[in-house]
Amino acid sequence: MRFEHRDGRERDAGIDMTPMMDIVFIMLIFFVLTASFTQTQTLDVERPSTASHDRSAPEALVVSVDRSNIIWFDGRQVGKEEVAGLVRGAAAGRPVSVVVNADRLVPSGLLIEVIDQIRLGGVANVAVATNAGHS
C-alpha cells in the first residue's frame, strides 16, 4: 500500500468569506437605492390657529395680507416690492419685530414672499399671527 507524503504543508481549513461579502454589498446597495427613491408624504395642515400664543411687543410693526392677497402696511395698500423699503424706513435702525397678519386663505407662496421682503428690509424677527384655539 502506498501512502502519499505531503511536504509538511497543511491545508488551511478556513471558510471562504467572499460570497458572503458579495451578498452583503449587494443588499447594502439595494437598501441605499430603495431608500433614496421613497417619497416623503406631506400632510394637509390647516393654518393659522394655535393652542398657545405669544403677545407681540407693543413696538412691533404689522404687515397684513387680506383674503384678496392685498398687502397692507400702516393702514395703506402697498405692493409686494415696497414692503422691504417701508419696513427699513419704519425700523429706522432700531431693533423691531414685525407681525404678519395674514388671512388663512392667503397662499403660502405669497406669505413667504412677504416674509422675505420684510427680512430684506433688515428685520430678522418676523412672526405670523395666528388665532388662539383649534379651529
UniProtKB/TrEMBL annotation:
Location(s) in or outside the cell: Cell membrane
Keyword presence, ATP-binding: no
Sorted UniProt keywords: Cell membrane, Membrane, Protein transport, Transmembrane, Transmembrane helix, Transport
Chief localisation class: membrane
GO MF assignments: transmembrane transporter activity
Entry's transmembrane regions: 20-38
GO CC terms in record: plasma membrane
InterPro entries assigned to the protein according to its UniProt record, in alphabetical order: ExbD
Membrane topology: Single-pass membrane protein; Single-pass type II membrane protein
Family: Belongs to the ExbD/TolR family.
PANTHER family assigned to the protein according to its UniProt record, in alphabetical order: BIOPOLYMER TRANSPORT PROTEIN EXBD2, EXBD MEMBRANE COMPONENT OF PMF-DRIVEN MACROMOLECULE IMPORT SYSTEM
This protein's name: Biopolymer transporter ExbD
Organism whose genome encodes this protein: Sutterella wadsworthensis 2_1_59BFAA
